[in-house]
Amino acid sequence: MTSVDSTTPPSTKMALLDSAERLFAQNGIDGTSLRAITQDANANLASVNYHFGSKEGLVGAVFGRRLRPLNSQRLERLGHALLEEDRSTKLRGILRAFVGPVLEMRFDRQRGNPEFIQLLGRTFAESAGQPRRELLAEFEHVLSRFLAALSETLPELEPEALAWRFHFTVGAMAYTAAVGRPLSELIQGGDVDYSPQVDRIIEHLVDFLETSWMRPDRHRDRNGS
Amino acid sequence: MTSVDSTTPPSTKMALLDSAERLFAQNGIDGTSLRAITQDANANLASVNYHFGSKEGLVGAVFGRRLRPLNSQRLERLGHALLEEDRSTKLRGILRAFVGPVLEMRFDRQRGNPEFIQLLGRTFAESAGQPRRELLAEFEHVLSRFLAALSETLPELEPEALAWRFHFTVGAMAYTAAVGRPLSELIQGGDVDYSPQVDRIIEHLVDFLETSWMRPDRHRDRNGS
DNA sequence: CTAGGATCCAAACGTACGTTTGATTCAAAC
DNA sequence: GTTTGAATCAAACGTACGTTTGGATCCTAG
């Protein structure tokens, strides 16, 4: 379930990727030692440097393995969404194409890799202001495609409003993916399994976002500070 | 400007807090060594353990110094907002009381401490799923007060919808505070100073949130999975 | 059967970390 | 003028880290 390719035999390389992904998500990248990873994967300490060159190489491999399929799926769904005619339906489709794959990978225990998404959000927050260049490059194409789609669907929106709304959209999604349960419950210390509710959570979020995106822009002639 | 109390002489203790806050925000808590902090503060390596007992003690002091005033300000503004009669105005007031102090502290170079907010968001993301207990305890009271206020203002909202909307609200705010500029610009690598636009950003976010909060709940009889 | 490349492994290397120690400085109290 | 306690300081302690090394082991092609 954890290995991305179930046909190949369980190689040391894959075991290292799986262990690293899980431990990175739990304790952070810097907080995870190669000793912990290799021990978890039943591999030798030197195996990481042999297979990936360095710890940094391992980090890149962990991200690349999941990020490529994730973004492909987003773009494919975006393509379908753009075929819609009704404006509201199209908007919902775009938003769903953007947040769906991430939240499914986060909450769906069957097909998903919850820990990778947690790692993704974590890494993004850690690098606030100046994200890892590799990570940003991987996203750049996808983000611009979605921005273009939203701009076409809501042509009356000014660029500034578009930018901020997209920003808040990413924020709500990333935070949901990173924290994984409502804050209110986090306080009470509950322990509910949210994996059966994936689609419900996605609909909650898409509802939340769609409403805000449809709102007319009121900031045409205000001034800050 | 950085020290919280400008009347007292520049003590080693305050210098350590200031340096730690800045370096923690830049490189993370684990990524910042006591040697870096004490060097930055022109203090001796052992001074941290003398004044704060341990590195963990220093971390707690860094958070406590800013968190107390921040949450006091939130509750005070919440009190004023609750005096409003018009529902929409009251809702906007509550949302502004919640996100305003954080974003002002993030973007306002005059009165604010941008780096602390960055540190806050970062720490929250790092601890995804199981935040630092101290940090959560500090917030618990504030969060429940805001949840109660929102529930009273929008009594027709079901608890689940309320919980998720509040969750998305925190997400959009936290992400904005952590990243600090629109993603679209982050890709292009721009270098605009957003500090003069504090109020504008807050209004964008409050608009975004208010619209979603006002939406009627449509999930009364759906089922997940 | 055997060469040779890929893989694994135990051990060690140098570096950086948080913390502790014991001496030293300094200013107020008596 | 002496005492006392807080504050500072250089130095060292033990631990953990990422990486390197060089030999052992495995597997496959010739």
What does this structure look like?
- The structure is a homodimer of 225-residue chains.
- By secondary structure, chain A is an all-alpha fold.
- Chain A contains ten helices and no strands.
- In chain A, helix 1 crosses helix 6 and helix 5 runs antiparallel to helix 10.
- Chains A and B meet through helix 6, helix 7, helix 8, helix 9 and helix 10 of A and helix 6, helix 7, helix 8, helix 9 and helix 10 of B.
- The first copy, chain A, binds a DNA duplex (30 and 30 nucleotides) through helix 3.
Set down the secondary structure blueprint:
The structure is a homodimer of 225-residue chains.
Chain A: H1 12-27, H2 34-40, H3 47-52, H4 55-81, H5 87-107, H6 114-126, H7 133-153, H8 159-179, H9 183-188, H10 198-214
Helix pairs in contact in A: 1-2, 1-4, 1-6, 4-5, 4-7, 5-6, 5-7, 5-8, 5-10, 6-8, 8-10
The structure holds a DNA duplex (30 and 30 nucleotides).
Q: What is the terminal separation of chain A in angstroms?
A: 53 Å
Structural class of chain A: mainly alpha
Mean pLDDT value of chain A: 84
Q: What ranges of chain A have pLDDT less than 50 throughout 5 or more consecutive residues?
A: 1-7
Q: Count the E strands of chain A.
A: 0
Largest interface by Cβ-Cβ < 8 Å? A-B, 63 and 63 residues
Strand content of chain A: under 5%
Number of separate helices of chain A: 10
Radius of gyration of chain A: 19 Å
Fraction of helical residues of chain A: 55-70%
| Series of H and E elements of chain A | HHHHHHHHHH
In terms of quaternary structure, the protein is homodimer
Largest sheet of chain A: none
Backbone shape of chain A: globular
